């Protein structure tokens, strides 16, 4: 694809966006004095910024570039990863949010220490750091580098990744989670407006005719459930593997859950999670369908990941292109800052602080800032390697399919199975990841030829068996020790007074019904 140049008005709008981002980082830096401020925004976040930040941070790592590209190549079934977030976030709001906040934890691995022991905490912390840097941050930097090299001729992938990492690293290290969240609010608004403009203009290319779209693309491009032998996303993988990947991402991944841990109340955390679930349903219409529409009027792109930058350059006039370009950069930056901050939180709070308890709050904060800088460079150097994979979205999801199923097992069953102790969890993690390694080796050798969502289901099933068997053979924890970190009756009760329409349980039911409508309509 040929290089696409932005006009001066476009560049001015993008520059204005960066000025606002740095201003927010500067303001938040003046309120960031210790580790709790840096990593948890002082636990002052309300529901609206939580929900918008959850949405913005997630969108950048799997949509606009990856999802639009996958939709261009093989249709809307890729949005199964998006609508599935809604029921998962309902579960998260019902069961895990109150446990996390009542435990007053700083990281998700710390919750595992409360539930099991320190060994399990550190195991999961190391796994999460690896995933945050090598999968999440590097994947997002690669997506951003693709965009910059398209719009800025002569810029190479490594330099583009370093530029993006440097910008995000500066305001993240200065202002911490508060800067991340409040820039995410700006980014979510720009992202929604920008993607809506692209969606409308893409539909205009078809004269706003749904029948024109249907008649010019393969039939399965508008179907959520693909055949069992489909190479992209078989229906069984949607029902088995996608929920496993989604549970890890929304319920246990530090860079997502960190926003909830910074909530000022359980009610705000729950409302924020449900708002994010609602916004995820819009992804089909705002970000996936434009990729499908592009197959009609932009056929023949060499790489699916090029489709969204090409839509911007093809459809939008000067000035408006700058706005949507700012939205695209916003989506990318919101994930980069999130993963950098969360990985630094894990290193600082799970490893440095326990080893150096004498550090003052200010010293701990500076350790965190140093770690952000280190990970900023490391992830930028890893990012160009992703070009060797079939596509950004494939890279992200395949990596997680091998890594996360054992983690999902110990969180999910540990919540409802009080007799499972530390030995049970550690056996499940180690044994499950040995199985993951064997499956990975069998896949590389060609002996195992399963879609990665089905591999995730297979590893989950084996890990479940390990958990249940080890639960019978290892020592159970005392009920008093785990009383606050397992399911108990009344956990889904309301935590704040108010009229009936403010009840998060009613919101949960409505969100589930809306999700059901979307799935049935496009089944």
Within CATH, the superfamily carries the name Sodium/glucose cotransporter
- Low-confidence spans: none
Please indicate the count of domains. Answer: 1
Second rung of CATH, namely the architecture: Up-down Bundle
Q: CATH class, anyone?
A: Mainly Alpha
Computed Rg: 22 Å
Helix content: over 70%
SSE sequence, one letter per element: HHHHHHHHHHHHHHHHHHHHHH
Give me a quick take on this structure.
By secondary structure, the chain is an all-alpha fold.
Summarize the structure in words.
With 523 residues, this protein is mainly alpha-helical. The chain has one domain: Sodium/glucose cotransporter (Up-down Bundle), CATH 1.20.1730. It is built from 22 helices and no strands. It starts with 7 loop residues before the first helix and ends with a helix. The model has no long low-confidence stretch (mean pLDDT 80).
What keyword list fits this structure?
523 residues
Walk me through the topology.
Elements: H1 8-29, H2 35-40, H3 47-62, H4 66-74, H5 80-83, H6 85-103, H7 108-115, H8 118-151, H9 157-204, H10 210-215, H11 235-252, H12 254-261, H13 266-281, H14 283-297, H15 307-315, H16 320-355, H17 361-382, H18 392-403, H19 405-416, H20 422-445, H21 452-473, H22 504-521
């Amino acid at each position: 694809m040929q290089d696409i140049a932005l006009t001066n008005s476009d560049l001015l709008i993008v520059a204005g966006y960066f000025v606002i981002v740095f201003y927010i980082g500067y303001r938040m830096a003046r309120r960031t004095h210790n580790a709790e401020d840096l990593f948890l925004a002082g636990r002052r976040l309300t529901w609206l910024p939580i929900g918008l930040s959850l949405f913005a941070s997630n969108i950048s790592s799997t949509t606009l570039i990856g999802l639009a590209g996958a939709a261009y190549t093989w249709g809307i079934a890729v949005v199964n990863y998006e609508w599935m977030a809604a029921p998962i976030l309902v579960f998260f709001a019902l069961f895990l949010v109150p446990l996390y906040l009542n435990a007053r934890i700083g990281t998700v691995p710390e919750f595992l220490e409360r539930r099991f022991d320190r060994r399990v905490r550190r195991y999961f912390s190391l796994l999460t750091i690896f995933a945050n840097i090598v999968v999440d941050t590097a994947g997002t930097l690669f997506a951003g580098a693709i965009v910059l090299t398209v719009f800025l001729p002569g810029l190479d992938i490594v330099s583009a990744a370093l530029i993006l990492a440097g910008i995000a690293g500066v305001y993240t290290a200065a202002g911490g989670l508060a800067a991340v969240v409040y820039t995410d609010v700006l980014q979510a608004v720009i992202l929604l407006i920008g993607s809506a403009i692209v969606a409308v203009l893409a539909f205009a290319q078809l004269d706003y005719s749904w029948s024109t779209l249907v008649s010019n693309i393969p039939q399965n491009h508008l179907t959520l459930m693909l055949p069992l032998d489909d190479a992209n996303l078989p229906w069984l993988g949607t029902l088995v593997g996608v929920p496993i990947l989604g549970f890890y991402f929304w319920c246990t991944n530090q860079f997502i859950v960190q926003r909830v841990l910074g909530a000022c109340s359980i009610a705000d955390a729950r409302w924020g999670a449900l708002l994010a679930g609602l916004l995820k349903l819009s992804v089909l219409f705002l970000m996936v369908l434009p990729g499908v529409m592009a197959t009609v009027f932009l056929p023949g792109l060499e790489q699916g990941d090029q489709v969204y930058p090409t839509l911007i350059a093809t459809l939008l006039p000067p000035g408006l292109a700058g706005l949507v370009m700012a939205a695209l950069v916003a989506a990318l930056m919101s994930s980069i800052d999130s993963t950098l901050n969360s990985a630094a939180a894990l290193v600082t709070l799970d490893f440095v602080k326990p080893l150096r308890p004498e550090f003052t709050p200010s010293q701990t904060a500076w350790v965190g800032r140093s770690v952000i800088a280190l990970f900023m460079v490391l992830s930028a150097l890893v990012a160009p390697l992703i070009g060797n994979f079939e596509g950004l979205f494939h890279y992200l999801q395949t990596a997680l399919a091998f890594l996360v199923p054992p983690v999902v097992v110990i969180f999910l069953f540990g919540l409802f199975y009080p007799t499972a102790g530390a030995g049970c969890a550690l056996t499940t993690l180690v044994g499950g990841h040995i199985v993951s390694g064997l499956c990975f080796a069998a896949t590389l050798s060609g002996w195992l030829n399963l879609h990665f969502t089905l591999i995730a289901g297979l590893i989950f099933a084996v890990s479940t068996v390990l958990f249940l068997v080890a639960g019978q053979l290892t020592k159970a924890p005392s009920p008093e020790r785990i009383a606050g970190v397992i399911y108990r009756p009344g956990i889904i009760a309301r935590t704040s007074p108010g009229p009936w329409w403010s009840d998060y349980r009613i919101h949960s039911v409505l969100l589930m019904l809306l999700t059901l409508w979307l799935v049935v309509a496009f089944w």
